[in-house]
Design brief:
3 helices, elongated, about 150 residues
Length: about 150
């Protein structure tokens, strides 16, 4: 494993741990009305799995965890009810060839546990969870197949 990949992974893991530490589970009745409306619309064809609140950069955001056709689909919603990010579980075969090649190269024979598309501000990137020797790691990949820092 290259030192730059390891550094990228460790930074990503630290950010993920820090972000999840600030999450607080909430109930539907505790959400602002605009967020409740978005959740109701987005869960008509999905199963609601969980709701949480976190403060990012001084802004309160809400994570809406859902399942659609047995696959995870998580939404990040701002306090006005606007969807700012969507993470959807996808099949490895469905991602662009450069992204798939990068995931397979980074996994290097390890088990690819989950692949997600991440849509934020109209841009699509990908995240892959890899299990190597009983340890899970995550790698973020841009749409062109480059590893995101």
């Amino acid at each position: 494993m290259s030192s730059s990949y390891l550094a990228t992974f460790l930074i990503g893991a630290a950010v993920a741990i820090g972000a999840s530490a600030a999450e607080k589970p909430v109930k539907m009745k505790d959400l602002p009305p605009a967020v409740q409306k978005t959740v109701q619309i987005e869960t008509k064809a999905a199963k609601l799995v969980g709701l949480s609140e976190e403060v990012e950069g001084g802004k309160t955001m809400y994570e809406v965890e859902t399942k659609v056709n047995g696959k995870s689909r998580d939404l990040i919603v701002d306090s006005a009810g606007a969807i700012v990010e969507v993470e959807e579980q996808v099949e490895l075969a469905s991602v662009p060839a450069p992204v798939r090649a990068t995931i397979e190269r980074v996994a290097a024979g390890a088990k690819i546990v989950k692949v997600e598309s991440v849509t934020k501000a109209g841009a699509v990137s990908y995240e892959a969870t890899i299990n190597k020797g009983g340890k899970k790691s995550e790698v973020a990949i841009a749409g062109d197949g480059s590893v995101k820092k």
